[in-house]
Amino acid sequence: MFDRYEAGERAVLVHIHFSSEDNREDLQELEMLVSSAGVESVAVVTGRRSTPHPKYYVGEGKAEEIAQTVHQYQANVVIFNHALSPAQERNLERLCECRVLDRTTLILDIFAQRARTHEGKLQVELAQLSHLSTRLVRGWTHLERQKGGIGLRGPGETQLETDRRLLRARIKSILARLDKVSKQREQGRRARQRADLPTVSLVGYTNAGKSTLFNAITQSGVYAADQLFATLDPTLRRFEIEDVGTTILADTVGFIRHLPHDLVAAFKATLQETRDAQLLLHVIDCSDERMADNIEQVQLVLEEIEADDIAQLLVMNKIDQCEGIEPHIDFDEQGLPLRVWMSAQQGLGLTLLQEAISQRLAGTMVEEHIQLPPTAGRLRSQLYQLDAITQENLDEQGNWLIDIRVPQVEWQRLCKHHHELLSNFVNSVDKD
């Protein structure tokens, strides 16, 4: 049903330069996408236009050039670095006598290859079906024929109408299954909220090094590769942060300029992990000459998923590929970490990153002088485990007189689980 690639396919790439920023794409990024899809690029056709042509997207002369290039290199697919309308795809396919795909279809296919979990596969299929629903008419005349045969003669639906009906039914079924998965994810989020476990989510442009950083922080074996969209399915792991305690780290799908809207809608449940995070680690490839533009594109996607108001810590990754940059932290006017310069691949600056996360998550420390009865041994043990006790004495009645210094997150957690013992301190003012 879908435009799926096979090993050994030969592609002609088409990239048009536009003066308008809205239509501007990057040729190098297209080549990386094609490589990630496992397709061989045999030729690149470029050109300039002020606006797309309604029939071929490119001018008629350029369309003829593309067709000639296809025949010259015996290519079996043409890939545009732009979004084509269904009519433009059909017209180009007739002219080139091979499949013509646009940037959105290419990204969808890469996602289909990368999906591993049940939820990921459902999300990709939903995005593909939503995209395909406008492209059922591909110029094949058999789709317009009505069904024939005994019992099927006379007024009836065409093959095209049947396909559309089946498509709607499949989309409805996938949405119902994704809704069930979404509820299961919501249960997990509520459980983490009840345990007061803060969540840190990795975001950033695709191939910025998020999965490599995720593995370095959590000592996990998540798949990481130097290719676009190496990570598709979200992964969550626990890790310990000084002055904060147990924290959840979420590795999410990378963003890309002009991310297809069908994908954003399909991955709504996955991106919820980003929206519910207390801190976003915005991973940036500081060796990429398009760094500023990539940062802007990530911010646009964060706005689209309504996560742009969450606190961010910029992680300037891959300093090993830059000259003269040592691991360090940049602070803002309030003295909070703003940027961490490091290399996840080489393990440079990991300690600095953990310090920065600790400072951003811990916020103010709580200092209290509390009195615990002899029966509160469990709470006293927890305070020792948190390394929160700075001084301890016994009074004449055998009560513990304890000075504590603990992160605000841990203090709120203790007050919730030991409300009776700490009720006098629940509304206390932070001292540090």
TrEMBL record:
InterPro entries xrefs: EFG_III/V, G_HFLX_dom, GTP-bd, GTP-bd_M, GTPase_HflX, GTPase_HflX_N, GTPase_HflX_N_sf, P-loop_NTPase
Role played: GTPase that associates with the 50S ribosomal subunit and may have a role during protein synthesis or ribosome biogenesis.
PROSITE patterns membership: G_HFLX
Keyword field contains Methyltransferase: no
The Hflx-type G domain, residue ranges: 198-365
This protein's record includes keyword Coiled coil: no
Subcellular locations according to the entry: Cytoplasm
Predominant place of localization: cytoplasm
Complex and partners: Monomer. Associates with the 50S ribosomal subunit.
Keyword line: Cytoplasm, GTP-binding, Hydrolase, Magnesium, Metal-binding, Nucleotide-binding
Protein family according to the UniProt entry: Belongs to the TRAFAC class OBG-HflX-like GTPase superfamily. HflX GTPase family.
Gene3D superfamilies assigned to the protein according to its UniProt record, in alphabetical order: 6.10.250.2860, GTPase HflX, N-terminal domain, P-loop containing nucleotide triphosphate hydrolases
GO molecular function: hydrolase activity
Gene from which this protein is expressed: hflX
Full protein name: GTPase HflX
